[in-house]
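Q: Is it fine to ask for two folds in a single conversation?
A: Yes, each is treated on its own. Send the first.
Q: Here.
A: Result:
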Amino acid sequence: MRGPARADSPVRDSLDRVRARIESAARRAGRDPLGVHLIGVTKTVPVARIREAMSAGLVHLGENRVQEAAGKILEMGGAPGGVTWHLVGHLQSNKARRAVELFDCIHSVDSVALVRKLARVAEELGTRRDILIQVDLGGEPTKFGLDPGLAADLAREAAAHPALRARGLMTIPPMSADPEASRPFFRRLREIRDQVAVLGFDLPDLSMGMTSDFEVAIEEGATMVRVGRAIFGERG
């Protein structure tokens, strides 16, 4: 029995294609596709199109900037129920309070000072926030993240603050037209995660892979992929 016809939706169709690619990549790696969470990055995307993606079942939304997310959430009448908001861009410490208020998970934590500021704010607000430790593997001056050798130290610091839960690691490899160029960086992040685990810090999540290379990231163990253009099209 056929269900009701659906209206044409470019965003829904794009989501379907991305989900199919995620499933194929996971199967190639012998992984359960349900272990990969798709974060739709909504930088510069208008609220109407975000709602379209939500109606198609997208439950993880990612924003690069605190102020842009605040405006969109206000326009939506508050954070929609059933949706998890992720901050995937660099976080300045002076925006830590607003980030804790708006986001469920902050992917870009890269210093002891920022860990302590987020913990203090979360405690004051009576909440607990998930964080990811951003690791700089490419050594690019324009990218943020801490030195790989300091990941365990930052995990130890985060573990000392009950108001934070360190869930894993995040990285952004150097840009390349070849997705395979990202593979060594993704593999290295997984290795760092495993090394930190030996020291007693369980960081199961790996946030890595974007539109250009998320399938390679999944093959290397990504549990979160941050996809914008493949869902919403080129940014205006």
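Q: Second one now.
A: Result:
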Amino acid sequence: MDFMNRLFIGKSDEHVHRQFVRFGKGLYDYRALINFARGKQNKVSGSFEYTNDFVLFLATILPTVQLSGVILSKDPITGFGPSAKKSGIYQTEINKEVTSQQIRDILGKCYNILVDVSAPGVELKSKRKLPKPGKSGEGKVDNKFCVLVIDEKYVPKAMEFFFPYVSPNTKRVKTRYAIKVEDIIAPESEKDFEKVRLMAKRKGTITRISEVDKKEEKKEIEFCV
């Protein structure tokens, strides 16, 4: 499952936590947009928050994948290609066939992986530059930052991974999230400011707003992650 679905079923992990580090107190609407359209091309598209999950999904359906793009990480990642540090973030080029386990290892170390993939029955395209921080809103979020096109045989797995909250026979889904952070809980024993920022938990509510075959559905949960 992608990071939002794991949060909604109470199975948060470090990847889920990292997605919320950027938030202070307040309401953040039009976040984590993800769409599905079934047709001659079965297409899943999403905003930048889903870059890692799109690659993780490929690791669940393919034993090896040719990745072409860039890995963004706090610490250097070796064994792939040239790496340069910009604004405190390492940018490592990758153009290599990797195994599904190698993908999981990379995802455990990086902030984002911005790559293209082309394999039988699968094509992924991702943009190479993350959006600048700023206010979000309808029309301001790129819901096609990453686009995955898959053959029909992969659709059931994609629905289970990205859209477990709708019928697997659904033809179209448009989902966004409204995140309300009401409190930030910092670790009491840690004094280093940067570590406190990275380790602090955000607490509040999240509303999932979905248009499922033109019918709106909503679900709200409390979270602390």
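Q: Anything structural to flag on that second result?
A: Two points. The longest strand covers residues 172-185. The two ends are 17 Å apart (CA to CA).
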